[in-house]
Fold this protein.
Amino acid sequence: MSGKRGTSRIGVGLIGFGTIGTGVVKVLRENAPVIEQRLGAELRLVRIADLDLETDRGVELSDIRFDADASGLIADPEVQIVIELIGGYDVARRFILEALAAGKHVVTANKALLALHGRELFGAAEAAGLDIAFEAAVGGGIPVLRSLREGLAANRIERVLGILNGTTNYVLTEMERTGEDFDVVLKRAQDLGYAEADPTFDVDGIDAAHKLALLTTMAFGAELTFEDIPTEGIRGLRPIDFELATEFGYRIKLLGIARSHRSADGEERIEVGVQPTMVPESSLLAKVDGAMNAIEVRGNAVGPTLYYGAGAGEMPTASAVVADLMEIAREIVRGGRGRVAPLSYQPRFIEAKSFVTDAERHGRALLRLIVRDEAGTLGRIATLLGESGIAIESIVRRGQGEAGPVSIVVLTRSASEEAFQKATEGLSALPEVLETPRRIRIEEEG
Protein backbone atom coordinates (compact mmCIF):
# COMPACT_ATOMS: atom_id res chain seq x y z
CA MET A 1 0.00 0.00 0.00
CA SER A 2 1.54 3.29 -1.07
CA GLY A 3 1.98 6.18 1.39
CA LYS A 4 2.98 9.81 1.08
CA ARG A 5 6.05 10.73 -0.96
CA GLY A 6 6.03 7.24 -2.42
CA THR A 7 7.08 5.52 0.81
CA SER A 8 5.63 2.25 2.07
CA ARG A 9 2.88 2.40 4.66
CA ILE A 10 2.75 -0.22 7.42
CA GLY A 11 -0.49 -0.60 9.33
CA VAL A 12 -0.47 -1.03 13.10
CA GLY A 13 -3.23 -2.15 15.46
CA LEU A 14 -3.16 -1.42 19.21
CA ILE A 15 -4.94 -3.65 21.75
CA GLY A 16 -5.02 -1.94 25.14
CA PHE A 17 -5.46 1.84 25.33
CA GLY A 18 -4.28 2.57 28.86
CA THR A 19 -1.34 4.67 29.99
CA ILE A 20 1.29 3.01 27.78
CA GLY A 21 -1.08 2.72 24.82
CA THR A 22 -1.77 6.44 25.05
CA GLY A 23 1.97 7.07 25.07
CA VAL A 24 2.37 4.96 21.93
CA VAL A 25 -0.21 7.10 20.10
CA LYS A 26 1.61 10.26 21.22
CA VAL A 27 5.01 9.00 20.07
CA LEU A 28 3.67 7.85 16.70
CA ARG A 29 2.04 11.25 16.13
CA GLU A 30 4.67 13.59 17.58
CA ASN A 31 7.68 11.78 16.10
CA ALA A 32 6.16 10.69 12.79
CA PRO A 33 8.64 12.64 10.62
CA VAL A 34 11.79 11.30 12.30
CA ILE A 35 10.34 7.77 12.44
CA GLU A 36 9.69 7.83 8.69
CA GLN A 37 13.13 9.32 7.94
CA ARG A 38 14.85 6.58 9.93
CA LEU A 39 12.59 3.75 8.81
CA GLY A 40 12.00 4.66 5.18
CA ALA A 41 8.31 3.86 5.63
CA GLU A 42 5.26 5.32 7.32
CA LEU A 43 4.03 3.64 10.48
CA ARG A 44 0.29 4.26 10.58
CA LEU A 45 -1.91 3.38 13.52
CA VAL A 46 -5.13 2.26 11.85
CA ARG A 47 -7.08 0.63 14.69
CA ILE A 48 -7.31 0.62 18.49
CA ALA A 49 -9.27 -1.89 20.58
CA ASP A 50 -10.11 -1.36 24.24
CA LEU A 51 -13.09 -2.08 26.50
CA ASP A 52 -13.12 1.52 27.78
CA LEU A 53 -14.52 3.62 24.93
CA GLU A 54 -15.48 6.64 27.05
CA THR A 55 -12.35 7.95 28.78
CA ASP A 56 -10.69 10.90 27.06
CA ARG A 57 -7.01 10.01 26.64
CA GLY A 58 -6.12 13.48 25.37
CA VAL A 59 -4.97 12.34 21.91
CA GLU A 60 -6.48 12.86 18.47
CA LEU A 61 -8.21 9.74 17.11
CA SER A 62 -10.20 11.14 14.18
CA ASP A 63 -8.41 9.00 11.58
CA ILE A 64 -8.19 5.83 13.72
CA ARG A 65 -10.91 3.22 14.12
CA PHE A 66 -11.53 2.81 17.87
CA ASP A 67 -13.81 0.09 19.25
CA ALA A 68 -13.82 -2.92 21.57
CA ASP A 69 -13.35 -5.53 18.82
CA ALA A 70 -9.84 -6.92 19.37
CA SER A 71 -10.47 -9.96 17.18
CA GLY A 72 -11.71 -7.70 14.39
CA LEU A 73 -8.55 -5.64 14.70
CA ILE A 74 -6.40 -8.77 14.43
CA ALA A 75 -8.30 -9.94 11.34
CA ASP A 76 -8.19 -6.53 9.62
CA PRO A 77 -6.06 -6.83 6.45
CA GLU A 78 -4.76 -3.28 6.97
CA VAL A 79 -3.10 -4.31 10.26
CA GLN A 80 0.32 -5.87 9.73
CA ILE A 81 1.67 -5.49 13.29
CA VAL A 82 -0.39 -5.99 16.47
CA ILE A 83 0.63 -4.28 19.72
CA GLU A 84 -0.60 -6.06 22.87
CA LEU A 85 -0.69 -3.75 25.91
CA ILE A 86 -3.51 -5.17 28.02
CA GLY A 87 -1.25 -7.10 30.42
CA GLY A 88 -2.13 -10.19 32.40
CA TYR A 89 -1.97 -13.79 31.28
CA ASP A 90 -4.95 -15.54 29.70
CA VAL A 91 -6.59 -12.88 27.51
CA ALA A 92 -3.27 -11.43 26.35
CA ARG A 93 -1.95 -14.91 25.53
CA ARG A 94 -5.09 -15.65 23.48
CA PHE A 95 -4.81 -12.42 21.50
CA ILE A 96 -1.11 -12.92 20.75
CA LEU A 97 -1.68 -16.49 19.55
CA GLU A 98 -4.65 -15.26 17.49
CA ALA A 99 -2.51 -12.56 15.91
CA LEU A 100 0.26 -15.02 15.03
CA ALA A 101 -2.28 -17.43 13.55
CA ALA A 102 -3.56 -14.53 11.41
CA GLY A 103 -0.07 -13.86 10.08
CA LYS A 104 0.53 -10.70 12.11
CA HIS A 105 3.78 -9.74 13.84
CA VAL A 106 3.41 -8.84 17.54
CA VAL A 107 4.89 -6.19 19.85
CA THR A 108 4.26 -6.55 23.60
CA ALA A 109 5.42 -5.11 26.90
CA ASN A 110 3.97 -8.04 28.84
CA LYS A 111 6.91 -9.40 30.85
CA ALA A 112 4.65 -11.47 33.12
CA LEU A 113 3.17 -13.33 30.17
CA LEU A 114 6.52 -13.92 28.47
CA ALA A 115 8.15 -15.01 31.73
CA LEU A 116 5.51 -17.73 32.15
CA HIS A 117 4.42 -18.65 28.60
CA GLY A 118 7.35 -17.43 26.55
CA ARG A 119 8.28 -20.86 25.23
CA GLU A 120 4.81 -21.39 23.76
CA LEU A 121 4.53 -17.90 22.28
CA PHE A 122 8.00 -17.74 20.76
CA GLY A 123 7.52 -21.26 19.43
CA ALA A 124 4.27 -20.22 17.73
CA ALA A 125 5.98 -17.18 16.21
CA GLU A 126 8.86 -19.30 14.92
CA ALA A 127 6.48 -21.82 13.38
CA ALA A 128 4.51 -19.03 11.70
CA GLY A 129 7.60 -17.24 10.40
CA LEU A 130 6.73 -14.13 12.42
CA ASP A 131 8.33 -11.91 15.04
CA ILE A 132 7.49 -11.09 18.66
CA ALA A 133 9.30 -7.95 19.88
CA PHE A 134 9.32 -7.08 23.57
CA GLU A 135 11.97 -4.48 24.43
CA ALA A 136 9.57 -2.63 26.74
CA ALA A 137 9.10 -5.75 28.89
CA VAL A 138 12.35 -5.10 30.79
CA GLY A 139 13.62 -1.71 31.88
CA GLY A 140 10.93 0.44 30.25
CA GLY A 141 12.76 2.73 27.86
CA ILE A 142 16.24 1.28 28.57
CA PRO A 143 17.45 -0.64 25.48
CA VAL A 144 19.05 -3.45 27.48
CA LEU A 145 17.42 -6.34 25.60
CA ARG A 146 18.52 -4.96 22.24
CA SER A 147 22.02 -4.57 23.66
CA LEU A 148 22.05 -8.22 24.75
CA ARG A 149 20.79 -9.38 21.36
CA GLU A 150 23.04 -7.23 19.22
CA GLY A 151 25.65 -5.01 20.85
CA LEU A 152 26.97 -7.75 23.14
CA ALA A 153 26.35 -10.68 20.80
CA ALA A 154 30.06 -11.52 20.52
CA ASN A 155 30.40 -11.96 24.30
CA ARG A 156 29.93 -14.87 26.62
CA ILE A 157 27.84 -13.16 29.28
CA GLU A 158 29.15 -13.73 32.79
CA ARG A 159 26.52 -11.97 34.87
CA VAL A 160 23.47 -9.74 34.75
CA LEU A 161 22.70 -7.72 37.86
CA GLY A 162 20.32 -4.87 38.32
CA ILE A 163 17.62 -2.74 39.87
CA LEU A 164 14.67 -3.98 37.85
CA ASN A 165 11.70 -2.38 39.63
CA GLY A 166 11.22 1.35 40.08
CA THR A 167 8.56 1.08 42.80
CA THR A 168 10.78 -0.85 45.19
CA ASN A 169 13.76 1.38 44.44
CA TYR A 170 11.66 4.44 45.31
CA VAL A 171 10.50 2.85 48.58
CA LEU A 172 14.03 1.82 49.58
CA THR A 173 15.43 5.25 48.70
CA GLU A 174 12.78 6.99 50.80
CA MET A 175 13.14 4.63 53.77
CA GLU A 176 16.84 5.39 53.84
CA ARG A 177 16.35 9.15 53.38
CA THR A 178 13.57 9.68 55.92
CA GLY A 179 14.03 6.87 58.44
CA GLU A 180 10.32 6.08 58.08
CA ASP A 181 8.75 2.62 58.26
CA PHE A 182 7.96 0.56 55.18
CA ASP A 183 4.17 1.01 55.42
CA VAL A 184 4.44 4.81 55.64
CA VAL A 185 6.70 5.08 52.61
CA LEU A 186 4.66 2.59 50.58
CA LYS A 187 1.49 4.63 51.21
CA ARG A 188 3.27 7.76 49.96
CA ALA A 189 4.44 5.87 46.87
CA GLN A 190 0.84 4.87 46.18
CA ASP A 191 -0.38 8.45 46.64
CA LEU A 192 2.26 9.68 44.18
CA GLY A 193 1.44 6.99 41.62
CA TYR A 194 4.72 5.09 41.95
CA ALA A 195 2.98 2.05 43.44
CA GLU A 196 -0.24 0.27 42.50
CA ALA A 197 -3.20 -0.01 44.87
CA ASP A 198 -2.18 -3.67 45.17
CA PRO A 199 1.63 -3.46 45.25
CA THR A 200 2.22 -7.21 45.72
CA PHE A 201 3.99 -7.86 42.41
CA ASP A 202 6.39 -5.00 43.07
CA VAL A 203 7.23 -5.19 46.77
CA ASP A 204 7.35 -9.00 46.88
CA GLY A 205 9.86 -9.10 44.02
CA ILE A 206 7.61 -10.88 41.52
CA ASP A 207 7.86 -8.16 38.86
CA ALA A 208 11.65 -8.22 39.13
CA ALA A 209 11.61 -12.01 38.82
CA HIS A 210 9.53 -11.76 35.61
CA LYS A 211 12.15 -9.48 34.11
CA LEU A 212 15.08 -11.53 35.39
CA ALA A 213 13.66 -14.65 33.75
CA LEU A 214 13.79 -12.94 30.35
CA LEU A 215 17.25 -11.52 30.97
CA THR A 216 18.58 -14.93 32.05
CA THR A 217 17.29 -16.64 28.93
CA MET A 218 18.79 -13.95 26.70
CA ALA A 219 22.11 -13.84 28.55
CA PHE A 220 22.75 -17.56 28.92
CA GLY A 221 20.34 -19.41 26.63
CA ALA A 222 18.73 -20.91 29.73
CA GLU A 223 15.16 -22.12 29.54
CA LEU A 224 13.31 -21.14 32.73
CA THR A 225 10.26 -19.33 34.04
CA PHE A 226 10.05 -16.80 36.85
CA GLU A 227 8.76 -19.60 39.09
CA ASP A 228 12.27 -21.12 38.97
CA ILE A 229 13.81 -18.00 40.53
CA PRO A 230 14.24 -17.76 44.33
CA THR A 231 12.51 -14.48 45.15
CA GLU A 232 12.43 -12.32 48.28
CA GLY A 233 10.81 -8.90 48.44
CA ILE A 234 11.32 -5.83 50.61
CA ARG A 235 8.60 -6.35 53.21
CA GLY A 236 10.08 -6.64 56.68
CA LEU A 237 12.95 -4.23 56.12
CA ARG A 238 13.21 -1.68 58.93
CA PRO A 239 14.83 1.73 59.34
CA ILE A 240 17.60 0.14 61.43
CA ASP A 241 18.65 -1.93 58.41
CA PHE A 242 19.40 1.23 56.45
CA GLU A 243 21.24 2.81 59.39
CA LEU A 244 23.45 -0.24 59.71
CA ALA A 245 24.04 -0.49 55.97
CA THR A 246 25.25 3.13 55.99
CA GLU A 247 27.55 2.47 58.95
CA PHE A 248 29.17 -0.44 57.14
CA GLY A 249 29.51 1.50 53.87
CA TYR A 250 26.60 0.00 51.91
CA ARG A 251 23.19 0.88 50.51
CA ILE A 252 20.22 -1.50 50.22
CA LYS A 253 18.75 -2.24 46.78
CA LEU A 254 16.37 -4.92 45.54
CA LEU A 255 18.54 -6.71 42.98
CA GLY A 256 17.86 -9.31 40.35
CA ILE A 257 21.04 -11.33 39.86
CA ALA A 258 21.92 -14.00 37.30
CA ARG A 259 25.40 -15.50 37.03
CA SER A 260 27.01 -18.12 34.87
CA HIS A 261 29.26 -20.64 36.63
CA ARG A 262 31.51 -22.80 34.45
CA SER A 263 33.34 -25.87 35.67
CA ALA A 264 36.81 -26.87 34.46
CA ASP A 265 35.24 -29.16 31.87
CA GLY A 266 33.14 -26.30 30.46
CA GLU A 267 29.76 -27.29 31.95
CA GLU A 268 27.66 -24.19 32.63
CA ARG A 269 25.32 -23.81 35.57
CA ILE A 270 23.20 -20.81 36.45
CA GLU A 271 22.74 -18.86 39.68
CA VAL A 272 19.62 -16.67 39.83
CA GLY A 273 17.79 -14.78 42.53
CA VAL A 274 15.86 -11.65 43.48
CA GLN A 275 16.49 -10.27 46.95
CA PRO A 276 17.25 -7.14 48.99
CA THR A 277 21.00 -6.70 48.77
CA MET A 278 23.62 -4.42 50.26
CA VAL A 279 25.86 -2.91 47.59
CA PRO A 280 28.99 -0.82 48.27
CA GLU A 281 28.08 2.87 48.43
CA SER A 282 30.91 3.57 45.98
CA SER A 283 29.32 1.38 43.28
CA LEU A 284 27.32 2.79 40.38
CA LEU A 285 24.22 0.80 41.35
CA ALA A 286 24.27 2.36 44.82
CA LYS A 287 23.82 5.79 43.23
CA VAL A 288 20.58 4.82 41.43
CA ASP A 289 17.78 6.44 43.45
CA GLY A 290 14.06 7.06 43.22
CA ALA A 291 12.03 5.18 40.63
CA MET A 292 14.94 4.68 38.23
CA ASN A 293 16.27 1.34 36.96
CA ALA A 294 19.83 0.27 36.21
CA ILE A 295 21.13 -3.00 34.82
CA GLU A 296 24.75 -4.13 34.66
CA VAL A 297 25.72 -6.72 32.06
CA ARG A 298 29.23 -8.16 32.21
CA GLY A 299 30.68 -9.88 29.15
CA ASN A 300 33.93 -11.82 28.97
CA ALA A 301 35.24 -9.59 26.16
CA VAL A 302 33.67 -6.19 26.85
CA GLY A 303 33.76 -6.27 30.66
CA PRO A 304 31.03 -4.43 32.65
CA THR A 305 28.43 -2.32 30.87
CA LEU A 306 25.67 -0.34 32.59
CA TYR A 307 22.21 0.64 31.32
CA TYR A 308 20.36 3.34 33.25
CA GLY A 309 17.05 5.11 32.82
CA ALA A 310 13.34 5.24 33.55
CA GLY A 311 12.10 1.69 33.97
CA ALA A 312 8.42 2.54 33.63
CA GLY A 313 6.08 5.37 32.75
CA GLU A 314 3.99 6.37 29.78
CA MET A 315 6.57 7.89 27.46
CA PRO A 316 9.74 5.88 28.27
CA THR A 317 7.88 2.60 27.81
CA ALA A 318 6.11 3.88 24.70
CA SER A 319 9.52 4.78 23.30
CA ALA A 320 10.58 1.13 23.53
CA VAL A 321 7.28 -0.11 22.05
CA VAL A 322 7.62 2.13 19.01
CA ALA A 323 11.28 1.15 18.59
CA ASP A 324 10.08 -2.47 18.40
CA LEU A 325 7.50 -1.47 15.80
CA MET A 326 10.26 0.10 13.74
CA GLU A 327 12.48 -2.99 14.04
CA ILE A 328 9.73 -5.24 12.71
CA ALA A 329 8.71 -2.69 10.08
CA ARG A 330 12.27 -2.67 8.71
CA GLU A 331 12.03 -6.40 8.13
CA ILE A 332 8.65 -5.99 6.43
CA VAL A 333 10.14 -3.36 4.13
CA ARG A 334 13.08 -5.68 3.38
CA GLY A 335 10.74 -8.59 2.76
CA GLY A 336 12.29 -10.68 5.53
CA ARG A 337 11.94 -11.42 9.21
CA GLY A 338 13.93 -12.34 12.24
CA ARG A 339 17.22 -10.63 11.44
CA VAL A 340 18.15 -11.36 15.06
CA ALA A 341 16.72 -14.16 17.21
CA PRO A 342 14.29 -12.52 19.67
CA LEU A 343 15.79 -14.29 22.69
CA SER A 344 19.36 -13.72 21.44
CA TYR A 345 20.04 -17.46 21.05
CA GLN A 346 18.70 -19.52 18.18
CA PRO A 347 15.68 -21.46 19.54
CA ARG A 348 17.35 -24.88 19.25
CA PHE A 349 20.13 -23.72 21.58
CA ILE A 350 17.83 -22.53 24.39
CA GLU A 351 17.67 -25.38 26.89
CA ALA A 352 17.15 -26.14 30.54
CA LYS A 353 20.35 -25.73 32.53
CA SER A 354 21.35 -26.87 35.97
CA PHE A 355 21.23 -24.39 38.81
CA VAL A 356 24.03 -23.81 41.29
CA THR A 357 23.25 -25.61 44.56
CA ASP A 358 22.82 -23.90 47.91
CA ALA A 359 26.06 -25.52 49.09
CA GLU A 360 27.92 -23.83 46.23
CA ARG A 361 26.44 -20.33 46.50
CA HIS A 362 28.65 -18.23 48.74
CA GLY A 363 28.56 -14.66 49.98
CA ARG A 364 28.65 -12.34 52.95
CA ALA A 365 25.55 -11.05 54.72
CA LEU A 366 24.17 -8.87 57.47
CA LEU A 367 21.99 -10.73 60.00
CA ARG A 368 19.56 -8.79 62.21
CA LEU A 369 17.99 -10.51 65.21
CA ILE A 370 15.40 -9.18 67.68
CA VAL A 371 16.12 -10.80 71.04
CA ARG A 372 15.38 -10.58 74.75
CA ASP A 373 18.31 -8.95 76.52
CA GLU A 374 19.51 -11.88 78.64
CA ALA A 375 22.90 -12.95 79.88
CA GLY A 376 24.65 -15.32 77.49
CA THR A 377 22.54 -14.42 74.44
CA LEU A 378 25.46 -13.12 72.38
CA GLY A 379 27.49 -16.19 73.20
CA ARG A 380 24.74 -18.59 72.16
CA ILE A 381 24.22 -16.73 68.89
CA ALA A 382 27.95 -16.77 68.10
CA THR A 383 28.22 -20.47 68.96
CA LEU A 384 25.27 -21.43 66.76
CA LEU A 385 26.63 -19.43 63.84
CA GLY A 386 29.99 -21.14 64.19
CA GLU A 387 28.39 -24.56 64.31
CA SER A 388 26.49 -23.70 61.11
CA GLY A 389 29.72 -22.81 59.31
CA ILE A 390 29.42 -19.00 59.51
CA ALA A 391 32.32 -16.86 60.74
CA ILE A 392 31.61 -13.45 62.28
CA GLU A 393 33.31 -10.30 61.03
CA SER A 394 31.65 -7.98 63.55
CA ILE A 395 28.70 -8.02 65.94
CA VAL A 396 26.70 -5.02 67.21
CA ARG A 397 24.09 -4.70 69.95
CA ARG A 398 21.42 -2.01 69.55
CA GLY A 399 18.84 -0.94 72.13
CA GLN A 400 18.68 -0.26 75.85
CA GLY A 401 17.38 -3.58 77.05
CA GLU A 402 15.77 -3.18 80.50
CA ALA A 403 13.67 -6.32 79.92
CA GLY A 404 12.66 -5.09 76.47
CA PRO A 405 13.86 -6.46 73.14
CA VAL A 406 17.17 -5.40 71.60
CA SER A 407 18.65 -5.85 68.15
CA ILE A 408 21.71 -7.97 67.56
CA VAL A 409 23.37 -7.30 64.22
CA VAL A 410 25.99 -9.63 62.80
CA LEU A 411 28.18 -8.88 59.79
CA THR A 412 29.38 -12.25 58.54
CA ARG A 413 32.26 -13.48 56.47
CA SER A 414 31.54 -15.42 53.29
CA ALA A 415 29.48 -18.58 53.81
CA SER A 416 27.27 -20.85 51.75
CA GLU A 417 23.53 -20.40 51.24
CA GLU A 418 23.14 -23.79 52.88
CA ALA A 419 24.97 -22.56 55.99
CA PHE A 420 22.79 -19.45 56.24
CA GLN A 421 19.63 -21.53 55.96
CA LYS A 422 20.84 -23.84 58.70
CA ALA A 423 21.77 -20.89 60.92
CA THR A 424 18.40 -19.19 60.37
CA GLU A 425 16.54 -22.33 61.43
CA GLY A 426 18.73 -22.73 64.50
CA LEU A 427 18.52 -19.09 65.55
CA SER A 428 14.74 -19.05 65.11
CA ALA A 429 14.50 -21.96 67.56
CA LEU A 430 16.36 -20.15 70.35
CA PRO A 431 13.83 -19.06 73.01
CA GLU A 432 15.41 -15.61 73.37
CA VAL A 433 15.10 -14.86 69.64
CA LEU A 434 11.71 -13.18 69.23
CA GLU A 435 11.24 -13.33 65.44
CA THR A 436 12.77 -14.93 62.38
CA PRO A 437 16.22 -13.39 61.77
CA ARG A 438 16.45 -11.05 58.80
CA ARG A 439 19.32 -11.65 56.39
CA ILE A 440 20.42 -9.06 53.83
CA ARG A 441 22.94 -10.38 51.34
CA ILE A 442 26.02 -8.39 50.41
CA GLU A 443 27.06 -8.02 46.76
CA GLU A 444 30.70 -7.07 46.41
CA GLU A 445 31.94 -4.95 43.52
CA GLY A 446 33.27 -7.05 40.65
User: Anything to note?
Assistant: Residues 1-6 have pLDDT under 50 and may be disordered. The domain at 362-442 is CATH 3.30.70.260 (Alpha-Beta Plaits). The two ends are 53 Å apart (CA to CA). The longest helix spans residues 314-334.
